[in-house]
Structures are given as structure tokens and as C-alpha cells.
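[agent] plan:
  1. take the single chain provided in the ticket
  2. run structure prediction with default settings
  3. attach C-alpha cells to the ticket
  4. add a short note for the reviewer (M.T.)
[agent] executing step 1
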Amino acid sequence: MKAKDLAKKLGVSPATISLVLNNKPGISDSLRKSLVEKIQELGHEEMLCQSCREGEVPGSKPAPVQRPAGAGCACKVIAYLIFEDREYVEDIKDPYNFFSGVLEGIEAEAWENDCCLVMVHMNRHKNIRLSEQLRRTGNVIGAIAHSANLTDETIRRIQEIDVPCVFTDTFGIRGWEPPSVCISNRQGMEGVVRYLAAKGHTNIGYFYSGWEHPVQVDRRRCYQQALRDLGLADRPENYFCTGPDAEIFDYQKTAELFRQAEVLPTAIVCENDRQAWRAVKALKQIGKKVPEDVSITGFDDQPICTLVDPPITSVHNSPQLMGRQCVTMIQNLWRLRELGEPDPWLRYELPARLVERGSVRDLNEE
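[agent] step 2 finished; step 3 output follows
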């Protein structure tokens, strides 16, 4: 029986049954005792971890580490690693962030595979080895990394753990290529530049944050490659950068960047939907119309695209699917290990397709 089915049978939430099966604090002793007794009465005692069966106080001792193929603690754990709390907090503050969708997908796939999801903030305990953090977390069978600006020390800590670690949307870090589930920036950027060219736009610009994360760097590179492939000019004056310290919804600096431009391009490709939202608001502030004066495209197809006038044409991808594929990749990495591959590596690219809305003008109709 799966954990979610057991939770439904007992009339409690999956989160509650997870705390019981993994002997974690967070519920009353009376409720825990009652649920343990009911699980035993139903004949599913094997789902209880060893510490539950031995009657240990929750949190007094970490559950033994187990690998997927063996016996022991039945409740497996997926650890979600957060390196930089600042980046994590910024994601949480943004109501249209990509991160929450990825987590939703991870949690859904984890539960369908009888796994719990636990958040692990690496940099809150720098004096403790990551392997020890995971041991204390419980029966961790794999980790998923919330990728931020990684330091050499963080990379070293990741490489030391003995369970598979999958990164979200990471395209290589200083010569190191970790297993990753990525969005196809190449497909997305080629699609949007080709679309603009078909609409008659030859003077195309690029608007970006300046945050030099591998994802942002790769998107910019794919944009430049798309220009070359279509024989379009890549003009330095058509690049606009707000800087990584800009506030989430502040478009004043963006307005100043556009105001200072001698000639604005007829279309601007934005690094992501947040930048596209800023671009639309900033252009309106300086008296320019979208798409009549400047066409705008985004990337990620987040809900914010439809909360501005005109709604933004964007490149669609699925954060939920990314989360699900991360859990699936952990399982596949274990299979490769079992087949004798000592250091398995995989990368999965999710498709990216254009969603057309009202922010692009067709110059061919003039």
C-alpha cells in the first residue's frame, strides 16, 4: 500500500501520515499513538520505520539510511537542497516564481513513489558535512538541488554525498556537469527569434537581469546563436540590463535604460517573464506603446504574462513536469548504479514552445 492510500484510509493528510511513518515531530503524541495502533491493526506495520516500531521519541535519533533496493525504513526521503537562503527567500517573495511550480511537481511525484519531501538549508550548518545533514534528515535516497550561484566549496560538498543529486535547470558549473533536468533554451530562443523575424522584425534587442546564473547565461547564448542562424545583426546597443540587485517589481531603472537609448529596437526578447513585465511597464512610462512601437516577448509563460496589458507572448515550459522528472531521474541514476555504472550522469531537456498573445506587432501587415 502507498503512503497516500494509507492516509486516505485513516482519514488524515499525507503530511500527517509522513510524520508518523518517519517518526518525525510535528503532531501530538496522542494522535501519533492512535495512528500507529491503527496502522498495526490494519496489518501494515512494515510501513513504520524502525524507530517507530521501537517506540523511540520522534527526533531523538535519525532514521537509518537505506538504499532503494534494500530493507529497513519503509519511508524514503527526497531532500531538496537550498544553497543560498537569499535566493530562496527572493523566490518565495515573488508570487509568480518558477520555484513553487517545481516544488509542486517534486512533491506530487515523490508521494506517488512513497517518498517524503524534506527541505535542507545547506548554508545554515556550514560546519556539518552535507552527508551528516542528510543522515540526520532520515532515509534520504536522493537529493534535488535548488540551484543558485554555487561556490567551489558547495560543489565539493555535493560531490561527497553518496546518494544521487539532480539539479534543476543547470547547464554546467566551471567545468562540472551535474545530472540535471533543464528547459530547452535553444529550442525556446530559436523559436521566439524565428517568430519575430517572420513578423518582419530585423532590429531585435535583448533585456536581461545581469544575474550570471548558468540558466541566464545559456539563454543569452542561445539568443545570440539564433540571431546568427537567421542572419540577423547582433547589435551591442540593443542589450539592456537592469542589474541583479533590482527589486522584483521595480521598473523605474528599466524606463531610464529605454529612455537613454538613441533608437529602440522594434522588438525586445526578454530573459524571463518578470523582465518582460518590467519592459511593458517601462515602455508605457516613457510614452511608448506595446506592441505598436516596440514588441515584447517573455520566457517561462508564467501567470504574470496575462496580468498586464497587452498580455505577453512567451515561451511555455512546465515547472511541475521539471519537478516530476527530477524524482524520476533520481530513480534512473540508482538503476544505472545497480547496472555497474560507478558515476552515472544524465540530462533531460524539457520542450519549450511559443505561446502567442498580444505583445508582438506584425510589421508585414503595413
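[agent] step 4 note for reviewer: The first strand starts at residue 76 and ends at 82.
[agent] ticket updated
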